[in-house]
Write a structure and sequence with these properties.
mainly alpha; 11 helices; globular
Length: 208
Amino acid sequence: MLSNGDSPESIVKNIGKLTLNDNPPSGNTSPAASFAELEQAPKSPATELGVWTKVTSDKSVLDHLFQLYFSWVHPVHTIFSEGQFVQSYHNGSHGESSHCSSVLVNAVCAMACHLHLSLEIDTLNFQDLSIKFSDAVRDELSVDDSGLTMIQAFAIMFLVESTRGNGLLATSYLNIAAEGLSRVDPQIRISAPDVWTSTVLGIQGLNV
């Protein structure tokens, strides 16, 4: 809104008018603008079944949370490749070559819930929803898993717990993420150098 020439006063006045379906501003170059455009493309059966998270199957809620995360968190703390994540998410791809996983999706959503502006028309309690997403993450977290999306999920949980004021728990998540980098399969670093670089620099940026 600032880039469109709106005054700070008008922005503050309009904040309370945002609804669940309003998308926060994200750069035109963002691959995630993304979720809205890719929603028009054919989906794989896996995506339609909502295999990424069991917390909610409401597509409008998930899309809203992704838009929040990629608008407000990702530009500051780039822990993974947005474009690769979006592509894997919509393709329903799993496995070592995928840049998306249920643990990463749940972590992203847990963080995004804290960015939602509470409105009288809300039918969901987003703070409670964040706890449910966090519980889903913890059910899958594994210190021994050296997969890149697992490490990325640990890093995002650092942000989640920091937001909640749980400093000690947040630090433990970040330490696990940083230590996990040394165990990542070298082949992944070669096959996805951009993703690897984003993850390393993102975690280093958190660990200051």
